[in-house]
Write a structure and sequence with these properties.
three-stranded antiparallel β-sheet; single chain; 20 strands; about 25% helix; about 475 residues; alpha+beta; 12 helices
């Protein structure tokens, strides 16, 4: 009522400057606007929104949404119901029929999915009766759909295993807890693998690996990694936008100097905030972030220069009605050559400068990683083989490190328990993958190493003796 009275007085001022306190007339006009007019258009300019006003200011466990307060004029931090919480009336997730953000603020509480309790005006937090992303409302309880798996599903199953005691450290230490975005998808940066042996990679919203990674040995790249540039480059490629010339660092962050459409500017690699002025590409050396050692005289690098020249030729030939030559060249977001290059007969692996590293047969992460360790003069056993045992640039599913054997994923991260070599044939790497992805514990995690006694695991038997 206090809000309506305030609005009525405001509307009265709008209606008659001679009678600024005519609240009766104001209430009549307000009622007309609410029932016949467009409140968002006519009232929003007269309202002051409650802080916080942005998603970065919302407390953990809440999601900032626009248009959910003050007749759709203001945003708020909304706390949705979590897994196994009850009395739900719907879901924010569109996979479960959600649409919370498009509902008008003045709609009744039951229809909007809001809890009947009054909102916390001091903190600008609304409590919703709708389930959070990745959760559906089933008979009044927020539950996951076994067929709609994503980051939230994997994370919740991991937390559940730790809370119930199903997680066995000597057996399940390879499982890692994913970082999820507020909408339930995978956050751009994921650090995979057991504690002390992690590798960070950039991923798409579904968790698939994209450009950008860092080993713990790459201390600065590893500690500052955020994958913002890599995720943007992935999104543009998915939208078939080939005009962008983003430059991403090896860890998926933005490089400090960026040029697009003939103009160059500086950007903070840590938070992607542009700073300073913009300069024509011909004057990029005047920018404070320009470094002649890193950039040279031209922004485009060898691979993208080659690709760009081909595209210009192709466009000119097409303009004259001639079909230009196709190109199969692939460049990474840092402007260098992609690890895998294919012709019409075969795909091969290359380093960033197009030096041949061997046959691909499905990917080149292993070939590139083996080269990295050689350049770092680190002795590391890495087995790059296809499932049939032939030469390949991908990681063999089964890897060895001295006395121990383990399953590895596509990024070479340990994806199964570390066991003594004697038990390597007992490892089921397919079950290990299912365990990591949240499958039923009794049918997956407990059977990853079939019949392995406690002394088969490295944590229980570091020297692999008496087995």
């Amino acid at each position: 009522m206090r809000l309506l009275a305030t609005l009525a007085a405001t509307v009265a001022l709008m209606a008659s400057s001679a009678e600024p306190h005519n609240t009766t007339e104001g209430m009549e006009l307000l009622n007309f606007i609410l029932t016949q007019g467009d409140p968002k258009t006519q009232l929003c300019g007269y309202l002051t929104c409650q802080l916080p006003l942005g998603k970065e200011e919302c407390p953990e466990g809440t999601l900032y949404l626009e248009g959910v307060r003050q007749f759709g004029c203001c945003g708020a931090c909304v706390r949705f119901l979590q897994y196994n919480e009850t009395e739900c009336t719907g879901s924010i997730d569109p996979n479960f029929g959600g649409g919370y953000e498009i509902l008008p603020e003045f709609q009744d509480e039951d229809g909007s999915g809001r809890a009947p309790s009054a909102p916390e005006y001091e903190s600008n937090i609304l409590h919703s009766l709708w389930c959070d992303y990745s959760l559906g409302c089933y008979n009044g309880t927020c539950l996951t759909d076994q067929d709609a798996r994503g980051c939230r599903f994997v994370r919740d199953r991991y937390d559940e295993a730790r809370a119930t005691g199903e997680y066995e450290p000597h057996r399940d230490d390879y499982r890692w807890r994913p970082e999820c975005s507020p909408d339930g998808t995978y956050a751009p940066k994921q650090c995979k693998g057991p504690a002390g042996n992690k590798r960070c990679v950039c991923v798409d919203p579904d968790g698939g690996t994209i450009y950008g990674s860092a080993f713990p040995e790459q201390e600065e790249l590893f500690s500052t990694m955020n994958c913002q540039c890599s995720r943007l480059a992935w999104a543009r490629e998915a939208a078939r936008d080939w005009t962008a010339t983003l430059h991403c660092a090896l860890n998926g962050n933005f490089e400090e100097l960026q040029c697009e459409a003939g103009w160059c500017f500086c950007i903070d690699p840590l938070d992607a905030t542009p700073y300073g002025t913009r300069m024509p590409e011909q004057a990029l050396f005047l920018l404070p972030c320009y470094n002649s050692t890193d950039v040279g005289e031209m922004y485009l690098r060898r691979c993208e220069s080659e690709y760009h020249a081909h595209q210009v030729l192709y466009t000119e030939m097409m303009a004259k009605g001639v079909e230009g030559p196709s190109i199969r060249l692939r460049c990474d977001p840092d402007g260098s050559y992609s690890a895998e290059q294919c012709d019409y007969d075969m795909c091969r692996c290359y380093d960033r400068y197009l030096n041949n590293l061997g046959i691909s047969r499905g990917g080149c992460t292993c070939a590139r990683d083996r080269l990295f360790y050689q350049q770092q003069q680190v002795v590391m056993e890495i087995d790059c083989k296809a499932p049939d045992g032939g030469e390949a640039g991908i990681y063999s599913v089964l890897q060895k490190r001295g006395l121990y054997s383990f399953c590895a994923d596509e990024d070479g991260v340990r994806a199964g328990p570390l066991v003594c070599n004697k038990f390597e044939t007992e490892l089921d790497c397919d079950l290990a993958t299912k365990c990591q992805n949240g499958d039923d514990y009794a049918t997956t995690c407990e059977k990853v190493c079939k019949g392995c006694p406690p002394e088969a695991y490295a944590t229980n038997n570091p020297t692999c003796i008496n087995i």
